[in-house]
Amino acid sequence: MQTLDKTHPIQELRTRLAEINDIESAASLLYWDQATYMPPGGAAARGRQMATLRHIAHTKFTDPAIGQLLEDLREYESSLPYDADEASLIRVTRLDYDRLVKIPPAFTAKFSQHSADAYEAWAKARPENNFAAVAPYLEKTLELSREMANFFPGYQHIADPLIDESDYGMNAESVRALFAQLRQQLVPIVDAIASQPITDATALHQHYSEPEQLAFSLEVIKQLGYDFHRGRQDQTLHPFMTKFSTGDVRITTRVRENDLNEGLFSTIHETGHALYEQGIARDFEATPLAGGTSSGVHESQSRLWENLVGRSRNFWEFCYPQLQAAFPQQLKQVSLDTFYRGINKVERSLIRTDADEVTYNLHVMIRFDLELALLEGKLAVKDLPAAWNDRYQSDLGIVPPSDTNGVLQDVHWYGGTIGGVFQGYTLGNLMSAQFFEAALQAHPEIPQQIRQGNFKVLHDWLKQNIYQHGRKYTAAEIVEKVTLQPLSIEPFIRYIKGKFGELYNF
Amino acid sequence: MQTLDKTHPIQELRTRLAEINDIESAASLLYWDQATYMPPGGAAARGRQMATLRHIAHTKFTDPAIGQLLEDLREYESSLPYDADEASLIRVTRLDYDRLVKIPPAFTAKFSQHSADAYEAWAKARPENNFAAVAPYLEKTLELSREMANFFPGYQHIADPLIDESDYGMNAESVRALFAQLRQQLVPIVDAIASQPITDATALHQHYSEPEQLAFSLEVIKQLGYDFHRGRQDQTLHPFMTKFSTGDVRITTRVRENDLNEGLFSTIHETGHALYEQGIARDFEATPLAGGTSSGVHESQSRLWENLVGRSRNFWEFCYPQLQAAFPQQLKQVSLDTFYRGINKVERSLIRTDADEVTYNLHVMIRFDLELALLEGKLAVKDLPAAWNDRYQSDLGIVPPSDTNGVLQDVHWYGGTIGGVFQGYTLGNLMSAQFFEAALQAHPEIPQQIRQGNFKVLHDWLKQNIYQHGRKYTAAEIVEKVTLQPLSIEPFIRYIKGKFGELYNF
Questions:
Q1: Does A63 contact chain B (CB < 8 Å)?
Q2: Which of B11, B110, B128, B301 is deepest in the core (most CB within 10 A)?
Q3: Which residues are recorded as binding Zn(2+) (chains A, B) (predicted)?
């Protein structure tokens, strides 16, 4: 990815982009630190520091000199194939530039500062079950989210610019249509499972010590291919993956000592995100190409590794003896089958991140619909907890006993926009199945290999077809390119019916 | 520290300074992370990221608009008393500005990048005893250090601008004069001690597990007054204190399982630095006033807490029962007297940070003289290990068996300038005794309180007289103000003769 002529405008563009990337990476480190090790006294200044860096990065990216360079590079770009590295760099940079110039840098700083404040308020309010304490922050988040959307006039739905930002090419209408199809298929499956005897998952709810869980999950992800030379894992309140360079891609996790699922699967989930980022071409370092291409594609990788691999029977045929060896007292008497059924127990539950693969998307749809209602002004922030509980009642037949396990459970609205953040989870689930089908078509031996603890062919196929490209292709392009079809709910439904049909005899 | 008029130029100055402070704080976090948690793969980008931020901070600080604001504020400044907060802010900012405008921002970036590279090279070369691997980095450090000095023409000695930067008001000549006096007093003391029987310190060199050492030292510094709400401790290769805001002042430590001294006293040492920073007026947040006033004064606080408190008999009369309770197997049979003599064992040793209070300054003088010789061009980098060993032979009668324990032991030359970095340690030792005498004069009850584990009166006195002022007063001013005398070697010599005269009967 090297143009040798040092005076070529693309070199000047690269230099500027690297500087911006460095500032953004530092801002990411400020966030990682806030969410892992920062003492409480650091919070006030930290919000201001992140806002300052975001403001500088924004100002530098929207410098008219970058606009001019992008103009100067049009001819060069069109002389190259669409997916040449440099053509892609110019195209993706222009996409970002055209979006960012519509947003004033001061707005970015204000939003960043507000997000940091809201995050701190949420971190305190959640264990205290105190929605009232975060409500004023949410009000402001909503106002800022609307303001953000309105920098992109001409939308059909006010959520469209926010959705487009994380899942380029999608909008409220197309997501709604996809979700409606999916719901129609899922609801009868959930009902069919509900009529079956309740799965016994008590084996997973014994006492598992935190250090032993952490040690075991590190061992697992090393085997999956997470590169610890270029990453590490730390503990946090709400797990996330973050990246400071292609050489430093970190994950975070949280552990509950009375629930083996929590730490193990959140670790594998974040590892999926990290494998994606670690797999991006190293040549893309410090450019806008060095990132996942959309929220949905990113989530497809976390969910593929967490579920299609990590919750598969094949995987546990390999891994269960290791787990039993790590926790002999708890698991010596528990059969693989009991364990496998336990980790795939389907139930109408409260917490999205703990939800099984069948009901998970219903959790997402609740949040997506509520986001849209908030943005549309049809739902007031003060009425959000009640609306949340109503939807849990109607969609999942269960009411949260507290906001801690209800509307306060997810960090997203308290650390980012309202709108555009939840659809990616379900898009990711759909894509994960579609990509996995394509991988199996190319390499039918993958399931057998997983059973033997060999993840290399799958990992290489994903790197080759998805990871290495970073943001070179859009989500829609990559889905088409890899699966030869547009995104559809069919592979996911096939997968769910196959796996859970066997588990629950329907 | 609030001027109410929002349009007053000092508000504009504050806004600009806060932005610069935020960028510098982020750069400090990048360094902290590099030295604590960063995976090896992150190193390459990290150096570039730090350089980018330092470059931006430098550029923003030397913006002519800041020069203009400082001009516009001259009249306002002279309307205020010298030590009014705002007058001090303007004066100290001008001092920094006048210095920084002489250095091109690109030089700062180049130096920062080089320091990061040199640090990585050193971290690898030190355990491998590979001076050759760092020699080219040192060559460049030397060249850059000379270049830095030459931005300040008119000096008497090339080290002067570098010394002045860390210890404002000092220069090679004044440091040399002070060191010569000190050496004259110290050498006979070292000789007198050398004629005495060797102290038995074997009790300190049993096996002490790392987690237990860490837990104990955290307990100790909590009692000393380190505020964990505004700080934390992590492990590193070469301990340091760093600050991201007045609400987030962190320390780092390293532990050796066969040496109780190492972890415990490096923790107390860094805590001394942190107490200083945690004690600065919160109003100074995000301004140049929010920092220690000089390398020497900073070191006076680390050494005061490490030595005058932490290695005193009074302290261990209080603390030794706790230590015995934490390590009963190792220490139940060891008397307080044996322990106290052990931690104060004087010997001609290899490692500066492990050195006793009597010989410590001889280690510093070796480094100081070598720095000067390198800068003067009288010593070549390739000859540095031999020169180092010669000086250890002549000054301490001992030759390092390897460069790991010789010229590679200290991080400073590998992560900063050659010149201006070591004199502060001895200046700090001198000041620590001078400040402590003044504290005892004001509060003769302090030794008795320390014996009871009560550090509040001492801590409050230091906050009141030194810490709160941050950079408001220069080192010379604060020494005069607090001790009513200029800096002198007498209090230190009195302290050493008193304490070690008793221990070694001279």
A1: no
A2: B301
A3: 269, 273, 299
